[in-house]
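In this supplementary section we document a worked example of the pipeline. Step one takes a protein sequence of length 244 as its only input; no multiple sequence alignment statistics are reported here. Step two produces a three-dimensional model, which step three serialises into structure tokens for compact storage. The input and output of this example are shown verbatim.
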Amino acid sequence: MTATATTPASTPASASASAPALTARALLLDMDGTLVNSDAAVERSWGVWADENGFTLDEVMKVSHGRQAHATMAVLLPDRPAEHNIADNRAMLARETADTEGVVPVPGAPAFLAALAGLPHALVTSADAALAGARMAAAALPMPEIRVTAESVTASKPDPEGFLLGAATLGITPADCVVFEDSEAGILAARAAGMRVVGVGPRAADMRPDVHIEDLTRLRVAALPSGGIALHLHLAAPDSVPTA
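The serialised model returned by step three reads:
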């Protein structure tokens, strides 16, 4: 497959300027910050851990986005035994799964996922299955049939394992996938997997993805006769952008 247009990573296209369509055979979707705004719940959970371990919340949040919790802990406390991080990770997952207050869809996510019904796509998240289910339900979003969660992989983002597994499960080559991500760790993972990236939201802009959009209202999904997917970026105000 050849994209109808690609943009070098150093000069990302923006929904505020004209940008041709990207084409793909499958889409791989991060969850937190991409489909679901869970920032408040994430910060509440990490705030508890930060207080217990002598960090400020800002110090933790600079590292945590996109990673599994134990991987964040390993960065912040490199000399701490891995089993201690894994135990803290379990406690944090339980706390986050029980706390869905303020979890809402990213603007445009409901229509975006509705437009993907019947098209090849998968969720690739650093959350485990229980947390992913809780947050997608809290945001009233349909769970993709194919999903790669924390239990599915041996390495957290920025390792590309999750995205490569998602592509393999869909039966699509990595170069024919487009990833939707919001975090540095996730974008690095997608690039390491050899995939193009649509960056969603403010965190993604600094990583110079292939395309950057403010939120999911700024694109339209269209099925191609060949079986592929076209992603049309839009300049119009969000309320005038069709999603299918």
